[in-house]
Amino acid sequence: MNVRYLVELTVDERSELTKLVSGGxxxxxxxxxxxxLLAADAGQCDEAIATSVGAGTSTVFRTKRRFVEGNLxxxxxxxxxxxxxxxxxxxxxxxxVATACSNAPEGCARWTLDLLAAQMVKLTEHEEISRxxxxxxxxxxxxxxxxxxxxxIPKVDAEFVARxxxxxxxxxxxxxxxxxxxxxxxxxxxxxxxxxxxIPAQPRTPAEVEPKITAxxxxxxxxxxxxxxxxxxxxxxxxYQRNGTANLFVFLNVHESWRRVKVTDxxxxxxxxxxxxxxxxxxxxxxxxxxxxxxxxxxxxxxALYETFPPEEARRILRRLEFxxxxxxxxxxxxxxxxxxxxxxxxxxRRIGERELLESEIKGWELRRNASGARINWMFDVEKARTKxxxxxxxxxxxxxxxxxxxxxxx
Length: 411
Description:
- The chain is an alpha/beta fold.
- The protein has three domains: 11-76; 90-140; 158-195 and 240-372, Ribonuclease H-like superfamily/Ribonuclease H (Nucleotidyltransferase, domain 5), CATH 3.30.420.10.
- 42% of the residues lie in helices and 12% in strands.
- It contains 16 helices and seven strands.
- It has helices spanning 11-22, 28-41, 46-53, 57-69, 72-76, 90-100, 113-123, 131-140, 158-172, 269-283, 303-308, 311-318, 336-346, 355-372, 382-388, 403-410; strands at 181-194, 205-206, 228-229, 240-253, 259-264, 290-294, 321-325.
- The strands form two sheets. The protein has a five-stranded mixed beta sheet, with helices on both faces. Strands 2-3 form a two-stranded antiparallel sheet.
- α2 packs antiparallel against α3, α3 packs across α4 (57-69) and α7 crosses α8 (131-140).
- The longest helix is centred in the last third of the chain and has 18 residues, at 355-372.
- The radius of gyration is 35 Å and the shape is elongated.
């Protein structure tokens, strides 16, 4: 044991090291140094510590020395390593980041590592900067200027806020069987058929043919080994054929485990009107008023019912419907969008080539999911919207007024 560097931990230091080695995400070297200090504090010799921790005796010696001559953090931290200094200073690195976030040179679609390296040579006193230096500095700042992401940027104005809070209020209301809230949307899907019949998956099965052994003298039996064929995944051909498209109208009850999918050939105004009549007469015939949440598609209008049915029939249907529209470019507020994603993941993530098969498969998914009691756990409400998006809300032109305001002013 090296008596010169005797490790004696305090209660707090021992507790900190024990917590470090017990779990969590930490560098391996730091954990090993903590193990060394704990073992040294327990009185183990350097050789025993090196064997148990899996390190050299020199590592044990240096860790103990840095603890005795310094402190706990110094013993756990990395020593400065030899090597060249960073090519770019902090100011030059900030200049690189600003350049990468600016527009690319004329005639170039985007910044590349070589373009940025050449630009930094022009902007600094360096005679040469490698593309690897540029790549590392950008990676440290999580920047990839050669990549772009398409995104729909909504205009958050008073109309956006009014529609958003209207929809969120509907979601937060107490369920009322006489006034159900139905989230409605449509989604196209392709009918993709197989050109060749897929080969189904095969399980792991025992070998059917055992090798023949020919011998002139008795052979001692060999130890039995499991002889089997490996299982095989389902295989399908890369070639397929397109059989047209179909449209899915999806209804979702916001407060109950109920959804319904209607398969049609198109999504015209007439198809929308038929869906609204089904909602009133077939799905909820006893409801006093059905509140429907949907997006701003051109066919989602009351006029569609007058284009499809006689005026008396159109008015009869509309008297029992109340339309609530999501803001433009904010389809994420339509709860049924989540359900459509579930439908595609659980049922439609495969090739279905015939309309009849599509309808039967969707019907099976619909019955099973309704019976399971599955619902969308919507957690975004008006209070959270005002907290997270308060900066985007329009500024009111007038100060609030009312009894509460008058009382505050009088006080």
